[in-house]
Amino acid sequence: MKKNLVTLLAVAFSAVMLNVVFNVGIVSAADTIELKLSEIHPQGYPTELGDEEFARLVKERSQGRINITVFPGGQLGGDEKAVVEQVQMGAIDFARISLAPVLQFAKELSVLSLPYIYRDSAHMWKVLSGPIGQDLLKSVDKANLVGLAYYDAGARSFYNSKKDIKTVADLKGMKIRVQEAKLMMDLVRALGASPTPMATGDVYSALQTNVIDGAENNWPSYISFSHYQVAKFYTVDKHTCIPEILVGSKKNFSNLSKADLDLISKAAKDAVEFQKKKWAESEKVNEEKAKAAGCKITYLDAKTIAEFQKAVQPIYADYKDYADLIKKIQDVK
Question: How many CB atoms are located within 10 Å of the residue 213 CB?
């Protein structure tokens, strides 16, 4: 009898304590939301660090109720094209991607990638953070994605394994790896080279075996993918400043409350300044790494850059439908 009484008292005490726990706002494990974010770049890369900051803010602001796990290095979903498809289907909740995989759904985003459309980085960020950029971010809705924020990806330049590129003419006939996007292929053709679409993971061996002569990317990618080991010539032409985007699955977001969606959206935007800072730091560090590794770095002067700009102008003719948008971007002060 005494044993039964003790058991009943223990059960009652446990019920009271559970009631106290829930009343002070601590959420049980069963109520937590587990989400996955795919990142093609390795751990510690500036976009991956932006992902981690986003995840940290969401967890902190939801008091641990929403947990986002970042999977770097392409370990979740493979290359970006495959990742986008899985986010669309709801197999992955978030992804940090370049613009290229979604241009087929929202061509207007291509305008943000046009060569030499920005005067400098400050100009680009005024565009992206303003009405123009935010309206364009919403355009991925047509691809069953939710555009959350832009990430800094710096300026892309050419590098190769053959020779120093000092003029547009030096690119003639070279096989250059590009992302699978019409704009990037047109850009390389306009400069007299031969575009070769290829997944990021295949570039190193293709450079090593002379399947391609070169590629184009930013400083952090040049180092993190070890391309500097097999393509020692880097030309700082800064032909494009292509922002990257953090997207969510429209399908999966339909299962979240408006309050949670607002929390996630705000956290994504708040993580951007952190990511931009890490990007700037990484650019300086990786440029110095390239120099220390014996890479030949060529910095083009204003006159030569003007030649590159002139060579790619025909590309703009394909975007006459967006002439007003292009002018608005160029006019942003």
Answer: 23
